[in-house]
Description:
Number of domains: 1
Number of strands: 0
Oligomer: single chain
Strand content: under 5%
Shape: globular
Order of helices and strands: HHHHHHHH
Number of helices: 8
Low-confidence stretches: none
Helix content: 55-70%
Largest sheet: none
Amino acid sequence: xxxxxxxxxxxxxxxxxxxxxxxxxxxxxxxxxxxxxxxxxxxxxxxxxxxxxxxxxxxxxxxxxxxxxxxxxxxxxxxxxxxxxxxxxxxxxxxxxxxxxxxxxxxxxxxxxxxxxxxxxxxxxxxxxxxxxxxxxxxxxxxxxxxxxxxxxxxxxxxxxxxxx
Length: 165
């Protein structure tokens, strides 16, 4: 009747949520402050972390499961029912894999392809779109460099504090 909850360290998930709530995204870049935007930001951060872990051959399935389980629980907590949550989770899983695959296929020069990916997920023809895409691309470039320098175990257990300036 009830899904079993495997006890995990939620520190990485909590840290990703904290990153997605950064005022920079909503005040400076004027992204819409809604749950879909926050989840997409979580996905971009998490995909970059997984990309680094892949290069260092770390096992990440439990962490992946934990992130998605937390998102599912949060959707239920805000009052959505089973049908909505199941449909939404399928869509979110497709979005995450799309981001992950496209990030994996980027050349070493992230800028142009990353800008296209960011535009696809975050921007709809606003007047400052070009500037904001550049700022968001720069943010994710710096986040990737920051994570690349971290110890993988610390990164996967959420023991990092990324501050964008």
